[in-house]
Amino acid sequence: MWDLNNKTALVTGGTKGIGKATVLEFLELGAEVLFTSRTQKDIDLVLEELSKYGKKVHGLVADVALAEDRQKVYNYIEKHWEKLDILVNNAGINIRKKANDYSEEEFRKVMEINLNAPFELSRKLHSLLKKSGNAKIVNIASSAAIQDVGTGTPYAMSKAGLLQQTRSLAVEWAVDGIRVNAVSPWFTVTPLTKGLLSERERMDPIIKRTPLNRVAEASEMAAIITFLAMDKSSYITGQNIVADGGMSVNAI
Predict the structure, then answer these.
(1) Using CA atoms, how far apart are residues 18 and 206, in angstroms rounded to an integer?
(2) Domains, the chain, ranges and CATH?
């Protein structure tokens, strides 16, 4: 039963990078998937690319940092599915600046999207997840949540908070049949990191810190997310899987 047959899944930020790879992995394993993006153009491109899956894949314009859009997501799922089996809180941003260069607005934006939105969306969808009786939430955190990796303080703060959110909700919602876990990637090839990873002076130190001697592919992160979304991982909750090619245990 290494599949997601008859499962319904929501992936936020599902048009690029890890989110898109997760949508594809879920579809390949039999799930019906709804993904969100802030732009219709991005949704249309992905739906066209995944057209072979027909009515198994759906896109919805929604900014999950906004209360009205979280309600929009809830209404869509309640109307079309009535319950939700899998929620992947993937949408996130980073503003690469030194701490003293952040404006208050920029700080709040990073925290709102990376930390508050997953919490509020999980709460909004709690009743639909509870109806599943065997639901899973997977939060996409970061290696920056557990050590300094040069991504900037606000980003690291938001992802560290997301890890504690994961642990606390896992305990609180276990009685509702909802498992909550996190995945913490190291540098992964995505549209958001492509520019940075193309600069040799940035890439070389990253590779030096990574025993596997390379950065990750988005599909490798999606595979871990998918395992946590499966019934096969039924005794895992409140955990953070660090997928970093050995970086965090490297002595150098």
Answers:
(1) 19
(2) 8-244 (3.40.50.720)
Write out the two tokens for 249: 């245990």
Residue 96: helix, strand or coil by DSSP? coil
Please report, for residues 98, 142, 164, the alpha-carbon distance to residue 25 in angstroms, rounded to integers and kept in the order given: 36, 20, 27
pLDDT digits (tens, 9 = 90+) for 61-96: 999 999 999 999 999 999 999 999 999 999 999 998
| Contact predicate 187/216, CB 8 Å | yes
Query: Which residues, listed in sequence order, are joined to residue 5 by a DSSP beta bridge?
Result: none
> Catalytic amino acids?
155
Q: How far apart are the first and last CA of the chain?
A: 41
Q: Determine the residue type at 44.
A: D
Q: Using an 8 Å Cβ cutoff, are 221 and 183 in contact?
A: yes
pTM above 0.90, yes or no: yes
Extract the runs of DSSP E, i.e. beta strands, from the chain.
Answer: 8-11, 32-37, 57-61, 86-89, 135-140, 178-185, 188-189, 216-217, 240-243
> Which token pair is 192?
């958001």
* Cα–Cα distance, 12 to 34 (Å, whole number): 8
Which residues, including other chains, have CB under 8 Å from residue 239's CB and lie 6 or more apart?
170, 181, 182
DSSP 15: T
CA pseudo-torsion sign 34, 37, 40, 41: negative
Kindly compute the dihedral angle of the four CA atoms of residues 79, 16, 63, 97, in this order, to the nearest 10 degrees: 160
